[in-house]
Amino acid sequence: MTTLYFVRHAHSTYSPDERARPLSGAGQADARRLLETFQGIPIDRFYSSPYRRAIETVAPLAKARQHPIIEVEELRERLLAPEALDDFQAAVTYVWQHPNENPYGGETNKEASQRIRQFIDELVEKHPDETVVLGTHGNIMVLLLETFDPTFNHAFWKSLPMPAVCRMDVRAGEQADIHVVPLLTNTK
């Protein structure tokens, strides 16, 4: 059984450069709070999207556990459009309602789902009986979860806080057991 913890990045500061967007001050505090969330949970390795906000979210935990973070493109956010959109929410809603279409020039839900699912299937084969933390993004994380359970959908994505943690226990080639991990709501 491989245990995967998907960590949606914490709140970030807006930047037109998607890859370099850093965490905000609140996001940095939430990233440090993940140390409490994972207290007592053994972790064997860390993977992350190469986007700065995803790396910065899992970095305090990886540093505390003295593990490197392996950056992989497969955990990057789904490209919705190559340019800024006038109505991001309407575009996301459209692609969730039409999983095989993306009139905005980016990945369809189906393409993004296949990309992340293939990576996760390979990761589970590669790391049996390990616990892995994956720094990622909300949309691609929920698209993956939906490949295992259709109740993880657009409405679920909209309800996710930043950061959010979802745990998946899975054996290669089998159905996964998925849990949304409650985060500490300490507002110190």
TrEMBL record:
Highest taxon of source: Bacteria
Family annotation (InterPro entries): His_Pase_superF_clade-1 (IPR013078), His_PPase_superfam (IPR029033), PGM_Phosphatase (IPR050275)
Family matches, as PANTHER family: ADENOSYLCOBALAMIN_ALPHA-RIBAZOLE PHOSPHATASE, BROAD-SPECIFICITY PHOSPHATASE YOR283W-RELATED
Protein name: Phosphoglycerate mutase family protein
UniProt organism field: Exiguobacterium acetylicum (Brevibacterium acetylicum)
